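Quick note —
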Amino acid sequence: MLSKVIPLGLPRALILTFLSIFSVYSFAENAAVGQLSASQEQRQAAKDVVERLGYGHYREIKLDDALSAQILDHYLKLLDGSKAYFTQAEIDNYEQYRNQLDDDLQKGDLQAAFEIYNTYQKKLVKRIEQQLVDLESFPDDFVFDGKETLLLDRTDSPWAATEAELNKLWKKRLTNSLLSLKLSGKTVAEARKTLTRRLQSQLTRVQQTRDEDVFQVFMNAYTQLYDPHTQYLSPRSSETFNIRMKLSLDGIGALLQSEDEFTKVVSLVPGGPADLAGELKPADRIIGVGQENGEIVDVIGWRLDEVVDLIRDPRASTVRLQVIPANAADNSQSKEIAIVRNTVKLEDQAAKKSIVTLDQNGQNRRIGVIDIPAFYVDFEAWRQGAENYRSTTRDVARLITELEAEGIDGLIIDLRNNGGGALQEANSLVGLFIDRGPTVQVRSAEGRIDILGDSDNSIVYNGPLAVLVNRLSASASEIFAGAIQDYQRGVVIGGQTFGKGTVQSVTPLDHGQLKLTRAKFYRISGESTQHKGVVPDIMFPNLFDHKEVGESALEFALPWDQVKQVPHKFYVQLPTWLPALRENHQKRSLQDPDLIFLAEQTKLIEQTRSIKSISLNEQTRQAETKRIEAQQLALENQRRKAKGLELIKELNEHEDKKDDPNQDAELVESGRIILDMIKLNQTAVTAQQ
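Predicted structure written out below.
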């Protein structure tokens, strides 16, 4: 379905990073009742975009009949990805444009694009109006006792042969919406009232669509074929984009996108209000927004920019979000989250230290942990030549000194959920752990390769090192983790990283602007961080769905490839140790209650994700929800029993101790792996003597 990513309350230093990682600009399903047509400015802008992509993008793609066919397919997917509006006959009719759109774009001819959209908008309006009529056929005492099911993902389904077939689909969708509301605690009458308001709201928004919206959707059906981060921004979107570049906006610190009728959380800004509150998670879906006092407004089917405006408000005020959790069995399971709005402060994003205490054969061992939420630098103070400006590298160097004074045996750099930031900080941070050398290669669209690195001979920390990552570790995080892995300076642990290995720049046009990919990152080993990311030396169970989160989940993402390796040294014999490290980790994974719980939790999440369709029978749905909740409760109590903790009767009785690193199973196991490294190194040294 259509996606559009908008940052809420992002600081300037992070906006570029997060937009470049996650943005896929387009508009949600909105349409005006009247006919829409292209302006002269839009026709010229189309020709300008074709020209800029032709010579400016990293990837060379010829605008020909083959690409024209892809544009048509992608445009139809953006408009009707769930195949719920167009019939096969209508799709067949659009075949006349399959080899024409490339010529149209070069001439600035947008007639075919607007014709398709105008048909789509009429069908959209018709569907909303029919849904309002069909709602009346559900009496207050309606019983959901049928045997029908609803397919959740229709991407691979064929187009409907007839309107009658689509009518059946929409009747199922309406039934599911009513049932979901009933399962969440509403009566059928209340659910019908809620859906009526929701549909009327959608109809109003349909009437607000303008020709600029259509133009942006179509242009991105073209630009996204180059890669998902290349986007055309209309003048209105450009203005909003530029404002966000300059201002630190108040909000909750989350990145959102539209997905079908929902507003989905893509990621949380490290150190932002939502991140600090700890309840909102990536892939959660926001279905309602309310202020501190008052009714929660149903936002299903709203335009994303309108949802954002509702969430953003004065600093220090509270916003209440009604959310369907990412791992909910169905849409009836929701919860309310209260978040105090604020700007994202540098102090909240700053690196922080802690210590994991482990028992090793009766001996107390201390493993230092430095959590880095983002790669930051006080650019203004740096430009002014301030002596003590804040930066990731400076803060981490200070924390290492403090930890060593506290007598640590090893160090973990925690980059989980770190979406990137200042490239210069990723380079200089590597320099704290090596004497000098290259850290990353940057290949331009012209094929020129620049090598960046650390020129400082000093090493701040030369002890045992581990880098902990997960699927949300991206961009600068991947550069750091990849360099540590390539130098064999430390062991990389956790989940395969995001895979964001491209660089974007914004080019102004006479009408709007174009954000296009200009360069690509490569590790000193020659491997790209693009698409594949960094694969850890030791893998932990993955709680993120790789089909939903990560560069590889984005359609048309640039592929992984290689360039020539840059000569570099190796610091430890990590390849020699890895078999033993993995074997020891595997043994603990079968014995440790927290690691067992993590693995079983991952399996349960995967089972939930594998559900392809849902029942429209109330009893069946209730039974399925209870079954999943019972499994979750059983897993938690199995863990608690093994650790000698009191069992719980409901899941909400259990609260994680977020601030205690000794309660973090991944940190604790990373510490144990470091102790294994120390032991293996001591054995190797003894053997050499």
